[in-house]
Amino acid sequence: MNIRNQMKLEFLSCSENVGLARVAVAAFASGVDFNLSDLEEIKVAVSEAVSNSVIHGYEGATTGTVRLSASLFNNALEIVVEDDGKGIADVEQAMLPGTGSDPERLGLGFVFMKSFMDEVDVQTEVGKGTRVKLLKSLTVNGESVKN
Amino acid sequence: MGYEFEQESGILIVKILGEFDLHEAEYARRDIDIQIRAQGVKHILFDLGGLTFIDSSGLGVILGRYRKVKESGGLAVISGAPPNIKKVMEISGLTRLMPFFVDRASAVQELG
User: Fold this and answer.
1) Quick check: helix, strand or coil at residue B42?
2) Could you tell me the residue range of the domain that residue B54 belongs to?
3) 3-state SS class at B68
4) A3-144, what's its fold?
5) Does A59 touch chain B (CB under 8 A)?
């Protein structure tokens, strides 16, 4: 697959940067054929992935590094959110709704990512960090764009 | 993001404006709880007419306040949610827990 465009952003694990991340990706993706509904969905997915890094990866510490990249291919947008945090011991468990320990949190981060994106891939290692790859296919008139 | 508080017929009305994510969640949770205690209200109405974005962190604050007022016999309802916000709430299951109203007036009438 040929990359048509790409952006990379690195920032500290502060909650302020959750908004920065989703707005940056939405601005990047708005130049192509995503409609407003797609862009809204992409924003929620990025927000969830970055929030996970801040809340769970770095457990609220604001000194961690979060790396975000967005790559535009002919037929899809690929977003990668990566941290060097504590990792996820049980990814399958983390993907289930309502599995968090905090009653104020819904535990729906991965549920939203899976609902709004076409592919969600999680690579993680305890003590090393987590890499979440999100893929959104480009559609024209409801049909997937062929590469 | 910002929020405005009003009280009408014993209902705390929380108008949430702009984007509601992790960064806003902690302050919002604290401020809304202070208002619930200070105003001694039974019910809470979230007016989301001015909300442009919400994710699971923002939804968690709304769900937490729903549980809080429910424990003391009150109700928490939503009004004016734009379509993109309502879609996120539907996926979260919140629309099955909390009544939704098209506007604030009909929500106040129902609670009153």
Assistant:
1) coil
2) 2-111
3) helix
4) Heat Shock Protein 90 (3.30.565)
5) no
